[in-house]
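[job 4471] stage=fold_predict status=RUNNING
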Amino acid sequence: MARAGPDSSRRPSSDSGVPNPQVLRKEGRYGSQDDDRLPTRRAGDEPDARAPSEHGRVCSRGDGVRQDIDHGRLLAGIAATLHDCILSVGTSGTVLWASPATEGLMGWSPDELAGRPFDAVVTPCDGRSLATAALDRLLGGEPVEPWVGAVVRRDGSTFDAQLTFGPMPGGDGSAAGAVVVLRDVTDQLSQHRELAMALEVSRAHFDQAATAQAILDLDGRLESVNPAWCDTFGRGEASFADCSLLDLAAPVDTDLVVRRLARLRVGDVESTSLRCRFRSAEGEQLSLVLDASLLREPGGRPYAVAASLHADEPAAAAVAGATAVGADEAQLVAELHRSVVESTPEGILATSPEGLVIFANEPAAELLGRPAVELAGQDPVLLLALRSDAGDAGGHGGDGAGVHREEVAHRRPDGGERILRVVRRPLSNCDDRLGVLYFVSDVTDARRAEHRLRAQALHDQLTGLPNRHLFLDRLESARVRHERRPGRGTAVLFLDLDRFKDVNDTYGHLVGDAVLREVARRLQAAVRATDTVGRLGGDEFAVVCEDVGAEGAAVVARRILTALERPVVVDGHEHGVGVSVGVALAPPYPFDEVLRRADEAMYAAKQSGGRRVRVAGERVG
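[job 4471] inference complete, writing structure tokens
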């Protein structure tokens, strides 16, 4: 660290840590408050650019202009500005000095922390030896890597902090103490845990899927493949490293794949589907259907592509492969085609040139919930509520070769609803159009599984409320709506339960979980129907209220206080937790600050005794 001035006789002893800016200012070590002039020099006098001046300042040159820097004032300004907490710890293991940020982060003023044992502040329960050992190693000349530990606040609650240790040199060059920087990483760790859980669930679904699936980067390179993808190409997972989707496609279809991926990458479409030929490890040509969808972050930025492959419709391949053969061979081919159509699990409909059903197999009748005889003469476009603008050229969702794909919600005559994937393609010979083939498959279970997976990744598993990711996404949506149609504003309420730690410590986490579930239920009942209640982690909740002013936000906050006045009863025991509420509005605060402002207001409410509301920016009389 840079020294405050050259006068070593007035510097505290080696065990005094970082000097207190207030004390230094009283002693005159910073110079006069209004003394901002450069020291006078004679013409031609060129002092050393780094030599201390008589006022304890250092003169340097920057862009040809002499700058006058007071190191003591500079250090005090840095310490007052940083959000991180800075502690000076002596060789005896006591806190000698603390930066102003400690009051907001830990609830202790710098003066109150002075003299407290360092290991009573950091990891107070089972980690005393860890903090002491780190300090001992540092004083012994060993480097100490940053680590994460639990830090206790004044109210007894703890938060996760990253601790960075650095030596404080003494007069003889040895370490006279330590400078410790504490950074609150609770939110980051919570987000990492939630993301890891979501990724674990997603990965399990990915690996166990029966269909070939892969994750591509935006340039089409394979980042991850599932076992079904490996089986499809007859290759091991390692062989797909540094491999592009274009490396797997047959040369005749690479241009089509490039165009479709380009449309996804620039955001022209969210998903695409195309028939494409690929090559297996043995060089065998595979006729497959590629479905690709764009993956976006909560803020909307695309980051990857989800791809899946499945076999092309066997009946279509059979019809397309029919050739002019002799009468006996033609009868054999016809029997083969009939066997394929009757044995496939997909529903198949064939229409006349006029667009009316002339053939339906049994799976089609089962999927649509009607006898096959009732399907004859009906228009599949009307029956399945398909897009009427697809035409023969493919239309929306087509591949440019007359094949059109879409998914529809179909209500059966018995009232049941299923999600059906419908592929239609023209049926023709060399000279005439014979009609249209429809292939129908039930994808209800797959889509519901995908919906559950998305819900698990965006909702808190304990309470069912939106988690931090979804809550921030709802806040961002509120910002977009406010910018599009400015109204009264948006309020964020930051909630922290009072005395919830006592419930966990006394009755255990199962009871604590039951209390959190009941709190979540009461919060949802207390807010407006248009408000979003989210659980940010632990016993912290937040609410987004759109189109509301200060008075409306105050009404919601009071209803929340009232809702949690009654004790929560679990297994016959009453648990009075209460809640501290911080409120911030945008405007006046920008949307990217409103959650932090509400958090600060909540902390002020808790410092005032809890069970009350504080509004950011309001003075407390």
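[job 4471] summary: The chain has 21 helices and 24 strands.
[job 4471] exit 0
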